[in-house]
């Protein structure tokens, strides 16, 4: 019997990038990884963000969070260091703040075609956080899709396909229904939630505990650390201790 993990994530969320890497590291070492079903879901941290924000990522965060510039710069530097620890590149000076709605549409279209959605998501994260691409730009998304062997014309049409749009909206509605307020957010077997970019060891523990219950073995203990780093509507928290984080303020 497989176990299912539903993950809500936003391309505009740096902790989602880090959390994905940590989760996948844990999954790769899990003895029953071939019996784990992973479903990725759309989450939009800032629905009011325009297609392209007229300013830098730091300026956007200052406006959005109301924090001093020095504090925002320290936050982005700390996130970049955490990413480097997972082998990820973050260049916040190059990031172009822009709506992630179209990027989520690409992911839903890719999923419908049977493409490797994890690879497409990684490409989107790299485009946004490393390469300074505008993830709301249809030409950028078509190029990313084509690099993953998706038909360019079909991708362009898929970005506004009503079925794809409804799938994105369904994810957003589901997140609201279960009370997801910050991402990344992991739901194991539609019963247990793990919030934030937890250390890989926490995901390993969660996988093993849920596997034991499903098959069954022993009861579960609470999953994850309550203060893991995550992003919410008001911005991204930074860790207060190694490999963990602070609750979203």
From TrEMBL:
Record's keyword annotation contains Isomerase: yes
Gene that encodes it: frnE
GO MF terms, alphabetically ordered: isomerase activity
Entry keyword annotation includes Isomerase: yes
Transmembrane segments: none
Residue stretches making up the DSBA-like thioredoxin domain: 5-207
Superkingdom of this protein's organism: Bacteria
Protein name, per record: Protein disulfide isomerase FrnE
CDD domains according to UniProt: DsbA_FrnE
Keyword annotations of the record: Isomerase
